[in-house]
């Protein structure tokens, strides 16, 4: 059975639990992990070059030769490409009227309750960018999986396009299923070297706020900051099933494509932790198919104490940031 995230790999939740202190921050950790299956699973690694993470990819093997006695062989070398991923700085401030907070009695809990909307916004922004981040349209952010796995290769050349499976949908009402293998040598989140992983909270305490008309009042201010990026160190261990026609979901056809996706990454995903992500509509279709006892690929099992649909033992988890309105992923020669 494939490995499951959280057993041996350091996830974002584990890292936060070790590096953060204080009642408010601890609750923030729970809020983030409870509302996002992706962030709960994500492996996090410190950048190896400041705010950037450099990965050296071998894209060509050296050539070895058989040698006869007294005969020689040629020198050879591998071919390498260096890929650099950057972190983005996600920030927001939260303010509550000091007099209102003081009336509550438990100021810290009241402020946290008021801040939950800000925390959820940051959570959803990071999750959305894990899939749809695009530095061409937002240079301050990072590239997500959809922007990396953005073409289907028709040649068996082991480029990233070979790990995008075409489900045959047309138009602009399509979605995707992602097989993400988390791990230090696979897909993982990154944070700046020498900093802390995950969402950081700074209590600014009481502050005087000035309104546009010059009037002032006292507030409690909090600053939330999350420096985060995404690295796909080995693109062969993650796959995308693209062009899934939302209007004509057929779970049987999806299973066929999921077999193709797993076959593409199976040899490369062995040292990581693979999780399948799709939106609720797709997961519902797969759940119904799993109830069919004759189905040998899908099953209903338990993951982290909760029932979950599995494909060949790999958990299928819901991510509602995966759209039903994706454009067609094109084919390239």
Q: What does this molecule look like?
A:
The strands form 4 sheets. A 7-stranded mixed sheet has the order 6-11-7-12-15-14-13. The longest helix is centred in the middle third of the chain and has 26 residues, at 107-132. Helix content is 27%, strand content 33%. The two termini are 35 Å apart. The chain is α/β, with parallel strands linked by helices. The protein has helices at 12-19, 23-35, 37-41, 98-104, 107-132, 145-148, 251-265, 280-290; strands spanning 44-46, 52-60, 79-86, 88-97, 152-153, 164-166, 174-182, 187-191, 200-210, 216-232, 239-245, 273-278, 298-303, 306-311, 314-318, 331-332.
Note the gap between the termini.
Answer: 35 Å
Count all strands and give the number: 16
- Beta content comes to 25-35%
Query: Looking across the biggest beta sheet, what order are the strands in?
Result: 6-11-7-12-15-14-13
Q: List low-pLDDT spans.
A: 1-10, 18-27
Most strands sheet: 7 strands, mixed
Rounded to an integer in angstroms, the radius of gyration calculated over CA atoms is 23 Å
Helix content: 25-40%
Report the average pLDDT across residues.
84
Reading the helices and strands in chain order gives HHHEEEEHHHEEEEEEEHEHEEEE
List the helices and strands and how they pair.
Layout: H1 12-19, H2 23-35, H3 37-41, E1 44-46, E2 52-60, E3 79-86, E4 88-97, H4 98-104, H5 107-132, H6 145-148, E5 152-153, E6 164-166, E7 174-182, E8 187-191, E9 200-210, E10 216-232, E11 239-245, H7 251-265, E12 273-278, H8 280-290, E13 298-303, E14 306-311, E15 314-318, E16 331-332
Helix pairs in contact: 2-5, 4-5, 7-8
């Amino acid at each position: 059975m494939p490995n499951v995230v959280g057993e041996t790999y350091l996830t974002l939740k584990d890292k936060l639990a070790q590096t953060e202190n204080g009642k408010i921050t601890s609750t923030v950790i729970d809020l983030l992990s409870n509302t996002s299956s992706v962030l709960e699973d994500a492996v996090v690694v410190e950048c190896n070059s400041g705010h950037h993470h450099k990965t050296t990819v071998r894209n060509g093997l050296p050539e070895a030769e058989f040698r006869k006695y007294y005969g020689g062989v040629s020198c050879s070398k591998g071919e390498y490409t260096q890929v650099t991923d950057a972190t983005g700085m996600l920030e927001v401030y939260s303010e509550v009227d000091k007099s209102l907070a003081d009336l509550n009695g438990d100021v810290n809990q009241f402020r946290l309750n008021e801040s939950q909307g800000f925390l959820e916004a940051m959570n959803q922004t990071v999750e959305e960018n894990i899939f749809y981040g695009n530095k061409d349209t937002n240079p301050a952010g990072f590239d997500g999986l959809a922007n990396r796995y953005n073409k289907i290769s028709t040649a068996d050349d082991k480029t990233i396009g070979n790990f995008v499976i075409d489900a045959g949908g047309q138009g602009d009402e399509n979605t995707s299923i992602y097989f993400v293998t988390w791990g230090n040598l696979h897909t993982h989140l990154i944070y700046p070297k020498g900093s802390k992983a995950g969402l950081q909270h700074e209590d600014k305490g009481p502050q005087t706020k000035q309104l546009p008309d010059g009037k002032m009042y006292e507030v409690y201010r909090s600053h939330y900051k999350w420096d985060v990026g995404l690295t796909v160190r080995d693109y062969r261990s993650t796959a995308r099933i693209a062009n899934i026609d939302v209007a004509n979901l057929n779970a049987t056809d999806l299973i066929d494509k999921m077999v193709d996706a797993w076959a593409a990454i199976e040899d490369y995903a062995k040292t990581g932790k693979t999780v399948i992500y799709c939106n609720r509509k797709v997961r519902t279709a797969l759940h119904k198919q799993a109830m069919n006892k004759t189905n040998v690929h899908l099953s209903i099992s338990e993951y982290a104490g909760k029932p979950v649909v599995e494909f060949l033992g790999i958990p299928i988890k819901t991510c509602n940031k995966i759209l039903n309105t994706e454009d067609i992923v094109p084919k390239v020669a």
